[in-house]
Structures are given as C-alpha cells and as structure tokens.
Amino acid sequence: MKFTLSWLKEHLDTDEPLETIVDKLTMIGLEVERVEDKAKALAPFKVASVISAEKHPNADKLRVCMVDTGSGAPVQVVCGAPNARAGMKGVFAPPGTHIPGSGLDLKVGNIRGVESRGMLCSGRELGLSDDHEGIIELPSDAPVGKPYADVLGLNDPVIEINLTPNRSDCTGVNGIARDLGAADMGAFKERTVKPVKGQLPSPVSVKLDFGKTPSLCPAFALRLVKGVKNGSSPEWLQSRLRSIGLRPINALVDITNYLTFDRARPLHVFDAAKVRGNLVIRRARKGEQLLALDGKTYALDDSMCVIADEQGVESLAGIMGGQTTGVSETTKDVLIEAALWDPLNIAQTGRKLGINSDARYRFERGVDPAFLLPGLELATQMVLDLCGGTPSEVVLAGDPTPAERVIDFPLGELKRLAGLDVPLTEVRRVLGHLGFFVAGQGKNAKIAVPSWRPDVHGTADIVEEVVRILGVDRIPATPFGRGNAPRKPVLTTVQTRTRKAKRSLAARGLVEAVTWSFVSKPQAELFGGGQPELALANPIAADLSDMRPSLIPGLVAAAQKNADRGYPDVALFEVGQIFKGDQPEDQFTAATGVRRALAKASGIGRHWAAPAAEVDAFDAKADALAVLAAAGVPVSSLQVVPGGPVWFHPGRSGTIQMGPQTVLGHFGELHPKVLEALDAEGPLVAFEVILERIPEPKAKATRAKPMLELSPFQPVERDFAFVVDRAVKAGDVVRAAQSADRKLVTGVNVFDVYEGKGIEPGKKSIAIAVTIQPREKTMTDEEIEALGVKIVAEVTKKTGGTLRA
Predict the structure, then answer these.
(1) Which residues are CB-contacts of 470 (< 8 A; sequence separation ≥ 6)?
(2) Which of these, 87, 407, 455, 796, has the minimum number of CB atoms within 10 Å of its CB?
(3) What 3-state DSSP class applies to 715?
(4) SS3 for 188?
(5) Is the pLDDT of residue 487 over 80?
(6) Residue 627 DSSP code
(7) What is the 3 state secondary structure string of 201-221?
(8) How far apart are CA 538 and CA 543, in angstroms?
(9) CA distance 273 to 330
(10) Rounded to whole angstroms, what are the CA distances from 649 to 256, 653, 683?
(11) Under DSSP, is residue 276 helix (H, G, I), strand (E, B) or coil?
(12) Partners of 746 in the β-ladder
C-alpha cells in the first residue's frame, strides 16, 4: 500500500515530521517497508538557463555552454546534447553531485582540452525516464536556481507499508489516517459523505440471480450519470496516481482508481451505451469467456461470479472489468457500480485465473459494507465535478447493512493478556478514536465493532487494538518462571544438526546460499524428482514448476551465475528442505555443498606459494564427512563405497553409509551430461547429506561430558603393507586393523596404494600406519610384536591379503 505524505495530510491534521510518522506507523502494526523521497535524491539538481552555446573548438558534436545557475557567475559546461542551445532552460548538476542514472559522482572534467564544471542532465541521467536523446527542456517561466524537484512536484515523500491481511481498512489512506489519529499523531478528519440527489430514473436495473446456490454478492448498487465529458483528469489527480505507480487513463477511470486507494472502496464504470438491457449478477456458465481490460481472454466456470447483460458477461465481479463495456474518451453516459462480494470467492477466482488487481486485493480482504452507498455517492460527486452530467437515482439490489457485532469486554483481560493496567477512560479514548463504541462502567464494558473492522471478533482482538495504539513498549518485561525442574532441550535433533552442519561448512570456507525451493520439471527429473504430485498448481515462473528433489541444481545455478560475473572459484552450501513425495515423511533436511574450479578447502583461487589445483571428489568427500562428524556420527564406523546417483560421475563419486541399509549421503564430481543440462561448466563437485537419516544417538545417563582421559604413556606407530585383490577396498583393510584391539589401536590411516612392478596383476598394495596407545603401562617389544601379528591375522582373515615382503 503506497501513499504520499500530502495525501495522508488530507485525512490527518498533523504537523509531525515524516520520520516520526514513519516510526509510529511501524509501532502500531502498519510496517513501513520504505520511504521514497525523490526530493532528497534530486536536491543538488537546479533549474539553469543556457546563456550561450558555442561549438567546441576540438569536437564537432560538442558545445561549450555558459550556464546561469542562479548562484552568481555563469558556469562553463561542455555538453554533447543536440538540443543544447542559447536561451533554453534545463537541469544543472554541479561537481560532486551523485548522478542516479549512471551511479557516478560528477567531477570537474577536461573534455577535449576544455574545462567542464558541471552537467546539463537528461531524463535518464536523473533516473526519471529512459530518454537520453537530449537534455531536459523546462518551460521558459521555470525559476532559475530553484530545485528541480520542486518544479517537477517531486517534493512529496512516498510511503509504502506492508499490510497484514487482516487490516483491510488500511488499504485506503483514510483508514491509515484514522489509526495515526488514535495514536496521537494528529486529528483525524472525519468527513461525512453527502448524498447526491437523483434527477431521473435509472434506465438499467440490477438483479441478483444465484438460483439455489449460495449468493456471492450481498449487495450491488448502480447509478447512471448522463451527459459526461470524459477527458483527462486534472493535474492534481494525475500527479497523485503517478506518485503511487499508477498510470492516469481518463477522468472516469482515474476517479475509481483514486477512491480505491483513498477510501479502500473499489468501484467500476461502464459505458452505458455499450450495455445491452439490464444487469444480472450470477455465476458464470461453463464455456463463457471474458475479454478483460488487460487485453487477455479468460475462460470462466460456474465457481466464478460475473456481471452480465443480455449479450453475455461484461465483468469479472470484484476483480476486473471487460473491454466490451469499458469507458473511453467518447463515453457520454456512464454507469457507476459499487458492490459487495464474497471475499473467499474473490480470492479463489483471482488465484484460479492468475489475476492480481487492486480491486481483488481489497475485496478478498473484505471491504466496509456500510460504505457501499456513501462510496457510490462520493464517486458520483467526483464525476459531476470533473466530468459534468446529470445523475440518476440509485438502483440497489441486496442489502448492504452490516451485522452488528458487540463484544463483552472485561477490563481485566488487558492485565491478563498484556500485563497492562489501563483505566476504562483511556480504553474508551483509544477505541473511540478507532471507531469503536464503548458502553458501560466499572470492570466490564460492551464494545460495538465498526463495520470497517471485519478482523475484530473477541476480547483478545480488543486487547491487541489497545496495546498497539498505546505502544508495546508499555508492556512490562516479565521473565518466565524457571521452576525447579531441569530445563529440557528446546531444539529438536534435526534443528541441532542443522546448526552444527552450517557451522562446520562455514568453517571449511563455504559460503551459505539460499536458493528457491522450486526447480524446472526437467531439472527435477534429472535429480530423481518430477512426480506429478510435486508439480505446483500455480508456479511463480515457468522454470520454477516443481518442488526440488535436491539442493544441488539451485547451488549449481548460483555457482554458475557467480562464474558468469567473474567469480569462477566458488564454494557454496545450503541446509534446507528437499521433497521426494507429497507426504510429511517424504520431506527431508539436506546439507548440500558445491565447489567449483579452484575453490578448495585449503584456499580458494591461485596462490604464489603453491600450484593451483582444481577441486575433485575428495574435496566433496571431506565436506560431507565434516558435516557428519559435526552431527555426532562416529566417522570410524562410516563406510564409503564407490558410485552414487546417476547425476554424479560414475568413476568419481561415492556413497557414505552405515551399512547397506543406512545411506547417509553421496559425494563426487557431477556428470558431464548433468552439467550440460544445467547449462553449467566444470569442474564442479558436490555432496548431499540427509540429516534425518543419521541414527539417533544412544541415550546417556547424564548430559555432562565425560572426563577427559589422556594416557601418560608414549604412543607407538607401526606401518604395514598388505597385498590384496584389486577389488578390496582400503576401508575394509582399515576396519580389519582396528578390530584387532579396539582399546589399544587408536588410529589407522592409509598412506600408500600401489600397483605395478613387483605386484602381481590383479593385485594392489595398501600401506597403513597403525597408532597403538598403551593405557595401563608401557608396552614391551614382545607385546607390540604380538599385537602386530594379531593385526596381520585380522587383515588376512577379513580381506584375504598377505603381508607384503
């Protein structure tokens, strides 16, 4: 919702500065997203007059201009615009000015040997338009030296607030002003709308026809104004609409757009000459279509509410009008419509057809039913003032009278729910300014809810209204009672693992990224997804049509975008949701990372001290193991087997598991065909670990960490080399050596794998370093030798290997 400060002051008598109003809006629940103050950005730009414009001595297309800026002596400016000439008035920027269109700061320049001490600006350089054919030309009566923003009328700040869906009353400036008035930001200007007397009967009647189905239109009001002159709207109205991003069209349409934002009262106008017969409000029939004002044709069905005449559908109720009956410059007689529509039906219809309009935005939140007829009267008066004409009597179908809502409110609810002791007089004052009527004395009151507040239903809503206007800073800080029992963990296991995974990956030099939860269907199918149940019914873009089965596509796209912009060495990670189906048990939390080009954990990019090395599958493996270690998985119990899903290179990938039934994740280099499908360039390695698949740790008797045990005895390291079949995995040799004596053997590392001369064909040599840590006494040579024999025996037994001579 956008509005200007001057627009707000038409409904609120206030002298408060802009900063105070903005802060108060956020404090009362109308969060300000941004304030656009073009006058501040354009403050250095002044109106200037070109005294002379002579040809540049060293360039045919340049002119040397002497410019009167209103500050004293003329300023010399070199200008290349074809329309620069003596006598014209333009926009001057002095040295030191930030140019919005280029993002550069203007300096004193020397252009082809001639000094230039400023600039005459074009519309594009000021960020106001795309016009760069010449410099801005101002009227001859523009005052020299005056700020250009004042001349253009841009000295009115635009405020944009982010409304919560329940505050339908604040979709109009009038409702925002009412809230600020209640918060002591000024006096709210309550204006009573005067009825316009009809001077002739309406030739068009209205009928609500929903048969035996529920009515989708509680009330519909219509009025004819004959003999209008529909030209351009006045400058004040056009300026107001342009300030909030709307394009002025003609007076009749501009009036309806203005009242939509001013009073949160959407209206519609029909060219009466194009309407055939009377109007019927009904459900659409199967097969009917509507050519709407946006130039698109929409297929309708019987779940949608429409306005129709004898020829067929004229408008999509509460959302958008049709081109057939739209007003134009030649419109002489106009029908003005104000109606109430079913909010849920408006939302469903707009979502089904993919139409987002200002009318839909308000009707699906609920408009003020009591303002239906006053809104029509206000629109009629504006039409008469701006376009002339003769009004008919009002035709009304249905009943716009709102149902009364009275809430019994015990004053003690403020203390119970918010901790505030507020007297009834102050409650009455706050609610009275908001339009509520408060009756009663003592500890209980009856509160009548105004028709424009459909979100207020009970005592908790009343408490919220009082608290937000008085200020949440008045709520006393009250600590929760801790109790005597020990505090239980707040985070779930997956939440804890998520935090630990992020810390471990950041420590390894990866940068966290947040990518879309959606991917294109081809990408989803590429990574094992693409099931019909995971396709989005209303995707925000064609290439974001399916829920992602993996985080890898999004991270690869982000890495490639960085590379396209000159940052090829990228290491990114994300911990987020992936989807294997549409059931809760099919949603998993994945910790995923990608490394590209020279983005190794030891250092990203090239360095003089060491040769540059591209990322490989072992970098991704180390990242995956770091995540698992941080999550509390005993790394020594993990198994790494060759190969992985089809999106990995078959010879440069691996699977991490705890037994064949518990696959924790995968890592490796991405398959060349996958990179081609993703429009990415390698080398690119990735890993993905599923946090839910990590087994739960065994329950411990205490949460306290065990005492650190350090052996006082010197550790011993022994090297062994085994000749095994080529198919034997190094991990099997490591686990066999560890099993010889799990108490004494504290570490086993592979330091060499060899095939070639001296080794039989089909065999390989695996060399391991075994660390032996005595616990109770220093081991003798005989004991160490006995343990070595035991290690050899275990490896031979479990792998078929023999000790290499």
Answers:
(1) 420, 422, 426, 430
(2) 87
(3) coil
(4) strand
(5) no
(6) H
(7) CCCCCEEECCCCCCCCCCEEE
(8) 12
(9) 10
(10) 61, 6, 11
(11) coil
(12) none
Please, what's the b/e burial string for 640-650 (b: 16 or more CB within 10 A of its CB; e: otherwise)? eeeebbebbbe
Write the single-letter amino acid at 480.
F
- Secondary structure of residue 445 in the 3-state scheme: strand
Tokens of 521: 């269907």
Is 745 in a helix, a strand, or coil?
strand
What's the number of CA atoms in the CB half-sphere (13 Å) around residue 347?
8
- Secondary structure of 307-344 as H, E, C letters: EEECCEEEEECCCEEECCCCCCCCCCCEEEEEEECCHH
User: Rounded to an integer, what distance in angstroms lies between the CA atom of residue 614 and that of residue 195?
Assistant: 79
* pLDDT mean across residues, the chain: 92
Q: What are the structure tokens assigned to 242, written together?
A: 């342009």
Q: Which residues pair with 67 in a beta bridge?
A: 50, 75
Q: Tokens 């005492």 identify what position?
A: 707
- The two tokens of residue 693 are 């698949």
d(CA 553, CA 520): 10
| Alpha carbon 506 to its chain's center | 24
> Containing H/E element for 723?
strand 716-725
Distance CA(671)–CA(655), nearest Å, equals 15
Task: Say what percent of the chain tops pLDDT 90.
Answer: 79
**332: which residues sit within 8 A by CB, 6+ positions away?**
226, 227, 228, 273
Give the model's pLDDT for residue 329.
92
Tokens of 229: 């002159």
How far, in Å, CA of 616 to CA of 462, rounded?
Answer: 62
pLDDT tens, residue by residue, 75-108: 999 999 999 999 999 999 999 999 888 888 899 9
Alpha-carbon distance of 653 to 661, in angstroms, equals 19
DSSP three-state, residue 803: strand
Rounded distance, CA 629 to CA 778, Å? 31
| Res 701 pLDDT > 70 | no
Closest CA relative to residue 376, chosen from 326, 324, 332, 334: 334
CA distance 513 to 800: 47
DSSP 534: G
65 near 52, Cβ under 8 Å? yes
**Dihedral of the alpha carbons of 558, 560, 563, 567, in degrees to the nearest 10:** 30
Rounded to the nearest 10°, the torsion over CA 480, 482, 487, 489 is 10
Residues 173-203 pLDDT 10s: 999 999 999 999 999 999 899 999 999 999 9
| Cβ atoms 392, 200 nearer than 8 A | yes
* Secondary structure (H, E, C), 99-116: ECCCCEECCCEEECCEEE
Whether residue 384 contacts residue 391, with contact meaning beta carbons closer than 8 Å, is answered with yes
Residue 643 sits at φ, ψ, to 5 deg, of 90, 160
Burial class (CB in 10 A: 0-12, 13-18, 19+), 338: buried
- DSSP letter at 586 equals G
* Cα–Cα distance, 441 to 3 (Å, whole number): 40
Rg, the chain, Cα only: 38
Partners of 197 in the β-ladder: none
H/E stretch holding 791 reads helix 781-799
Cβ count within 10 A of residue 706? 7
Kindly list the distances between the CA atom of residue 199 and the CA atoms of 373, 394, 636, 778, in Å, as whole numbers in the listed order: 17, 10, 93, 115
